Amino acid sequence: MNNTSSIRPWIPKEIEQFIQKHAKHYQQLSFSELESKAFGLIEAHEKLMDHQSIVLYAGSNVINPNVAKMLSSSIGVRPSLGYPGAKYNKGMDHANQLEIMLMSLLRKLFRAKYVEYRVPSGSIANLYAFMATTKPGDKIMAFSDHASGHVTHHADGAAGLYGLEIHEVPFDYSQMDVDKEALLAKAKKVLPKLIIVAGSMCLFPYSLSEVRKVADEVGAWVLYDAAHMGGLIAGGEFQQPLQEGADLMTGSTYKSFGGPPSGIVLTNSPELGERIDKIAFPGLTANFDLSRTSAMIIAVLDLLAHGKEYAKMCVSNAKALAESLNNLGCEVFQINGKGFTNSQHIAVPAASYGGGDKASEILEKVNIITSGIELPLPPVKGDFNAMRLGTQEITRRGMRPEDMIKLANFFYRSLVERENPINLKEDVIIFRRSFQDLHFIRRKNKYNPNVNHPL
Fold this sequence. Notes:
Layout: H1 13-27, H2 31-52, E1 54-55, H3 65-71, H4 93-110, E2 114-119, H5 122-133, E3 139-142, H6 158-161, E4 165-168, E5 171-172, E6 177-178, H7 180-190, E7 194-197, H8 208-218, E8 221-225, H9 230-234, H10 241-244, E9 248-252, E10 263-267, H11 270-284, H12 290-328, E11 345-349, H13 356-364, E12 368-369, E13 371-373, E14 386-390, H14 392-396, H15 404-416, H16 421-432
Parallel strand pairs: 1-12, 3-4, 3-7, 7-8, 8-9
Antiparallel strand pairs: 2-10, 5-6, 9-10, 11-14, 13-14
């Protein structure tokens, strides 16, 4: 292979050196060696993440094998241009029905009149929402980093790239909720076209109906970013944004949703439904991946069948893990009068461990997967000041509240006692062997008779 790499000075030096080192190695391999290496890396990754690790990363989940089967279908390489029943490219009679099926199922799952499923990700779903409700130069209001606002709502993300002027939503950190009085006062001055609620971590429901009142007073739309909360909203165990005042709800279809990596936009407004539809076609996603559409059908069926029980268990596991950690002396972020969490998320202050990313690196050495996040706490120089945990994947793996004591003990041994990671890692792998099946997915069918996972 020809060496076409070049140094990118805008990338941090140590990261670019890491990439260039491995790129140089791969440029020296034959095609057969590269293919073999690629398959080997996939196999090693699946062994680590699917069989040997406790995954508490809030942005991940494990999928129904039938979702994987749909993703591997050849339908994904077939272009799909236009509305079902009127495709520009022909031979799509069967594919048309898959789109109609998914639309119908998503409407039922979220009680939404209009659904956009052709979106490639939650981030692009947010861009769709921005384009449908604003124009470049308009003002919007969004959660800050400390309130767990997502980068797509900020200057460095889709909102800024689209040319929007971003202002912070006033936030009551003592309740981890919108500061309703301050929001009204600020919104009257800013006059935003859009107010965004939620983001990268949602410990408790937000006062969405109060945000709706403010939006009505200043003539703004309301967007609820359900990227992390789709599964719990679908299961009825978190707030219901479209019924509580949101004009639009965007989301990812993995994370708590438990499906393929994709995005959705939902609304009950005919005006916004039409705008979103035209942004999708003939706009930004004239063609899209039908294998993801097919895979989402299976994920939605799982949520329709088992979503309530699954969502309840996600919350029960999160509360049990938070309490177990706290009882061991591992500080857990909590709100007076509310507790640790009412969702699948847990926030762990991490200054004593060197920061959220540093703590995640320590845990990674013993096959526990987490990530950092910002909280309204004193900063940690060069790092996040907390860790974010999510229980959606361990719930699908069959873990229950009674298992959280053992899991919390792994945290304590790793972060507090600083036990030898080699020994602790082996204990984690042994513990993980008891949780290899999938739960809260539908049982076998005639197209995949070998899959018979318990509920």
